[in-house]
Amino acid sequence: MIEYLEEDKSSLTIRTENFDLKQTFECGQCFRWVKSGENRYTGVVEGKVIRVRQDGSIFTFEGINKQEFDNQWIHYFDLDRDYASLISQISIDPLLKEAAEFGKGIRLLLQNEWETTVSFIISSNNNIPRIKKIISSLCIQFGDRIESNGETYYTFPAPEKLATADCKDMDEIRCGYRSAYIIDAAGKVSGGEVRLSEIRKMGYEEGRNELLKIKGVGPKVADCILLYGAGKYESYPVDVWVKKVTEQLFLKKDSTMKEIKEFASSKWSDAAGFAQQYLFYYAREKGL
C-alpha cells in the first residue's frame, strides 16, 4: 500500500512498508545503485539519474514525478506488491520465516533486460565490489555522459554500441575472459538472434532457452536474468550461497542443482524467487 505525501514536477514523497533501501540495493540483485549519504542512494536507471532518500517508512524520489512513478517506477521498485502477504505466504516453516523477517525490506527490482544480462555475465565467479567496479568502468568507457546536480554519470551502453567493440577495446574495464561473452551477447541481441526484449512475455523455459544461446550464460546466470530482468518469480538461481543454505536448512544433504531447483519449485512454486532472495541475503549477511 502506497500513501502519496508530497509531489512536484521532479520529486515525489511516499509512505510504504516492507521497503528498505540498503537491503534492496545491497542484496546482490543490482549493481548501479550507490550509497550517496545517510539513508540515501543514487542510481542511473533507463538513462535517468534518480536519487532516493529513506526516513523510516517515508521515501523521497528525486528525478521523477508522480505520473512517471505511476507509469514506470512503481513497477521497477515492485511497490505495487503486498510484501507482508507475500512473506506470510512463503513463510511456511520457521527457517524461511526467520530469513524473510531478516530481509523483509528487500524489494525485487524489475530491471532492464539488457543491463541485467551483461551484469550477471560479469557476476560469474566474481564478488560484488569488483562487479560494481567493472560495470562502472563499462559505462564510463562505452555509455553516454549525463550531467545531474553538478555531477557526471553515464548510461548503460546499448547492445549496438558494444557489438562493434572487440576484446582490446574492453581491456580498460578489466573483465578478462568475460569481454568475449559481453561482445557475443551484444551481437546476438542487436542482431535479433536472441530476442531479449521479448523474454518477459515468454514462459520460464522458453525464456531460459533463449538466454542460453549467449556464450557465458549458463543455468544460474539465466535464472538471475529471468528473476531480476524478466519478472519470472518461479526462478530460483543457485549459486554457492544458495546451494549451501538450501542444503543446510532444508535438504540436509549434498544435492545437485536439479534437486535444489525441484525442491524450491515444489515448496514455493511461483514465489521461489522471493524465497531465494531472502535465503541468499540471510546466508551472506549471517556468514552461513
Pick out its properties.
288 residues; alpha+beta; TATA-Binding Protein; Endonuclease III, domain 1; Endonuclease Iii, domain 2; 3 domains; six-stranded antiparallel beta sheet; two-stranded antiparallel ribbon; 13 helices; 8 strands; globular
List the helices and strands and how they pair.
Layout: E1 3-8, E2 11-15, H1 21-25, E3 33-37, E4 40-45, E5 48-55, E6 58-62, H2 66-76, H3 83-90, H4 94-102, H5 113-123, H6 128-142, E7 145-148, E8 151-154, H7 159-163, H8 178-190, H9 204-211, H10 219-230, H11 240-251, H12 257-268, H13 272-286
Antiparallel strand pairs: 1-2, 2-6, 3-4, 4-5, 5-6, 7-8
Structure description:
This protein is of the alpha+beta class and 288 residues long. The chain folds into three domains: 78 residues, TATA-Binding Protein, CATH 3.30.310.260; 118 residues, Endonuclease III, domain 1, CATH 1.10.340.30; 47 residues, Orthogonal Bundle (Endonuclease Iii, domain 2), CATH 1.10.1670. The protein is 47% helix and 15% strand. The chain is built from 13 helices and eight strands. It has a six-stranded antiparallel β-sheet. Strands 7-8 form a two-stranded antiparallel ribbon. A hairpin with a 2-residue loop joins strand 4 and strand 5. Helix 4 packs across helix 13, helix 5 packs antiparallel against helix 8 and helix 9 packs across helix 10. The longest helix has 15 residues. The chain is globular and about 50 Å long. The protein starts with a strand and ends with a helix. The mean pLDDT is 93.
